Structures are given as C-alpha cells and as structure tokens.
Amino acid sequence: MSDRPSTTGGGHNTRHPTGIRIVLAILATLALILGPAGYLMGLQATAHAGSAAEWFTIAFGAAVGLPFLGAAVATVAGDRKAALWCLALLAWPIVFVSAIHLLSLGG
User: Fold this and answer.
1) 62 contacts 68 by C-beta, under 8 angstroms
2) Contact at 8 Å (CB) between 37 and 94?
3) Would residue 9 be called left, alpha or beta, if left means φ above 0 and alpha means ψ between -120 and 50 degrees?
4) CB-based contact 80:14 (threshold 8 Å)
5) What is residue 39's three-state secondary structure?
6) Is the pTM of this model over 0.85?
7) CA distances (Å), 107 to each of 5, 12, 39, 47, in order?
8) Coil, helix or strand at residue 79
9) Tens of pLDDT along 36-53?
10) How far is CA 3 from CA 8, 9, 11, 78, in A?
C-alpha cells in the first residue's frame, strides 16, 4: 500500500506542485546567492580566530546543503524533474569558485 494519497478517477497525484516549486525556487535562490557571498567573505576574512572557516562553512552549507535539501523535498513531493534541477545546482560551486579565482575577486 502506498503512502501517497489516492485521487478519485485514477488521475495524477497533485501534492501542491506550485507550492513545492516556490519553496524550491527560494532554496535555489539562497544557494545561488549565499554560496558565492560566503566564499568571498571567507577569502576576505581577517586573521582573527576561525573567521574564514566560519564563512567557508556557510558557503559550503548554502551551495551544497540547500540543493540537497531541495532535492529531498522534491523527491518526497514526487516531483522528479524538480529534484533533478536541484541536483544540477551542485555544479554551481565549481562555477563560482572557478570564476572568483580566475577573475581574482577574492582579494
């Protein structure tokens, strides 16, 4: 027996796809913004104890953790396409770290 709610007439299961996509868009936006921002702050951190490590942790958590969270939410909601798009965001850290270092934005 499935945990998913059944629909009358054998139609498709609709578990509020618009709401799920809005939540995933918010998570993706946060990952796209907070990842590079945290990484830049880590590169520009002063030498006091642990500052750079804290910023790099925030950058990693945002750039990697939020896409995994989005993929998990989309998978539970039954939206495979959205889950794949969330997993595609895992390439974003490679892009922004390369761009920051190639363009010498890190200070």
Assistant:
1) no
2) no
3) left
4) no
5) helix
6) no
7) 53, 52, 12, 14
8) coil
9) 999 999 988 876 656 888
10) 16, 18, 16, 12
